[in-house]
Known about the structure:
Rossmann fold, alpha/beta, 6-stranded parallel β-sheet
Amino acid sequence: MRCLVKAKDEPGLWLEERPIPEIGPEDVLIRVHRTGICGTDVHIWNWDDWARRTVPVGLVTGHEFAGEIVEIGRDVTGLSLGQRCSGEGHLIGKTSRQSRSGRFHLDPETRGIGVNEPGAFAEYLRLPAFNVVPLPDAIPDEIGAILDPLGNAVHTALSFDLIGEDVLITGAGPIGIMAAAVARHVGARHVVITDVNEDRLRLAAEVADCLPVNVAREDLAEVKARLRLVQGFDVGLEMSGNAAAFEQMVEAMVMGGRIAMLGIPPGRTAVDWSRIVFKALTIKGVYGREIFETWYKMIAMLENGLDIGRVITHRFPAARFAEGFAAMRGGSSGKVVLDWG
Ligand code: ZN
């Protein structure tokens, strides 16, 4: 099979031929049709410190996918050949306290496909049947291929009650943009999304009914006044990993506001904790997706009119993956989807 491999200890990915994976009794084999390129994959391409510490050379990369089941392990029940599916790329253990209490997404033994284990940038993927998420007919493969990042957006956005609330999202990457769409879908009043990249802000306004603000040119205090927010934003979704953006968010929140953080700062960052204490803010770190509650919710919302399709800005056949990565690394794309046939 063709697959995208971290074949060398240097920047880049390489298209290689590998044998089709063999499955165990509790696995399925998935013929992959579409994959999404993630920011994580760009880190692996760039071969930064994190990637070098984490990803073994020789690994098949990729974790955002949709396809169909073509082989079923002998102990698997409830799945069928030809079943269209996506799946959770976090492979969990079964022994930790978190797993045994059903909080699977908090299992410290988690291993990620395409990061620690063979991934989905391939014509075939082996996946534990437990991780498979069947796709309804209403969800096409290219949307199925971005349910992993949509899940990040949904998990973050649904961390706090958004009904009637004023929401500030910092960072208009694809996940921030999808979170804006989710916030509107579930009934937020004002949704403001900030960035310094005009292309991304334009895309945000195309995908979601939200107010894009370029904080390089516009002050959030003026935006608050224009929207007649008495104090500030009730809920913040931090999606940028940028220290200045987080500081602006803290400044723009109401007393007692709630912040969900998905963005990952590059290292240690200075935070004025006194502001957080005196504003009585709640901050929640968000990791991955709730397995499988987030999947249930996002599929239900997609079936009920949540439309994030326009966040996909680039589509390439898998053989032209380098163009896909170039679009991602350019910093102005939405989601980039590769077609594996
Ligand atoms: Zn991802």
